[in-house]
Amino acid sequence: MLMPTNIKIFIVIPAFNESLQISNTIESLFSKGFHNIIVVDDGSTDSTFEDAKSHGVIVVQHPVNLGVGAATATGMEVAKRENADVVVTFDADGQHHPDDIENIIQPILDKEKDVVIGNRDFTNGMPSLRRIANFAGNFITWAISGLFVSDSQSGLKAFSKTAIDSINISASGYEYCSEIFREIHYKNIKWCEISIQAIYTDYSKAKGQSFATGLSTASKLVVRSLLRANT
Amino acid sequence: MVEFSFYQLLTPAFSILLIFHAISRYSRSEQTFKELLVWTFVWSSMALVAIYPELFVSFAEKAGFRNGVFGIVFFCIILVFFIVFKLLLFIERLERKLADVVRHIALYELDQRKYNEEASEEIKDSLHHR
User: Fold this and answer.
1) Which of A38, A91, A130, B83 could be cross-linked to A155 through a Cys-Cys bond (beta carbons 3.0 to 4.6 Å apart)?
2) Is B106 in Cβ contact with A74 (below 8 Å)?
3) Based on the structure, what is the number of domains in chain A?
4) Total CB pairs under 8 A between chain A and B
5) B87 touches chain A (CB under 8 A)
6) Complex ipTM
7) CB-based contact (8 Å) between A61 and chain B?
8) Which residues pair with A196 in a beta bridge?
9) Contacts (Cβ under 8 Å, ≥6 apart) of A167
10) Are A172 and B106 inside 8 Å of each other by CB?
11) What confidence score (pLDDT) does residue A124 get?
């Protein structure tokens, strides 16, 4: 597919201690013609910031680690300042395939949808404990937002300009995934899911959301719901 | 003469100390009036229950508890849950504020870097044209 040149597509990569993989991820995006890349170094203690910067992409650095939600929100903010038409969030750990970006932005370019979620294939090597955690995440997302999604915790998502302007991410950690669906539901944003590939290497399996962080995410979501009721 | 046990003397003394501490914090504007009222109510109740346990026991029995001790344990657990809940909300609010500050610093530093890079490019250009 030939990318439209008049549309500004920005790729936001939240990264925490990803020095082993960040260069490969950026290079793979370059090879597919995506040059507007924003890396948000979320308080890494390794050379993630320097490695990302050496590729000439926009790099924002959180002085301390906040979590993937806050890093994504910062990346979105930078994309907004750069007048992005489409923003794609992309995991730094190499589990996404850059070819999928073209597929997930198509409904936005066609002006049919404002948010597109990349739906990973769980049968293709995803650890079973991670699969259970993912299902629990989907269930909690449904309880909070009223939307049942096949892969609420997916890192590959695409947002139109309208969606970027109206979605407000206030959660710092993985709970931002569920928060996005809450925003989609309450703000009547048009969305859809599209199947994507997931590359499970030992590295990407070690990264991402574990069962323990899943439990912590769930408890934070409960507190946030109560907080919303109290403010 | 009424005899008080050690804990019956210690609890009111401790309560009075904490109420005075709250008043002092309120006078220094470190606490809101609502917080002062809640604090005073909680610690006065503690002191009252310590001095006149039979008051609470009869109240608990009227409320349907099998005996006063069950009532005290029940209310204490509710109170602890309430405090934990309030603390969680407080931490959550602090986390949000921290995230706002960190993100603000990150964006500010990005702007500064961009400005410095542009300035150094301009200097290079002007040197090149000389």
Assistant:
1) A91
2) yes
3) 1
4) 48
5) no
6) 0.78
7) yes
8) A120
9) A76, A115, A159, A180, A183, A184, A187, A189
10) no
11) 66
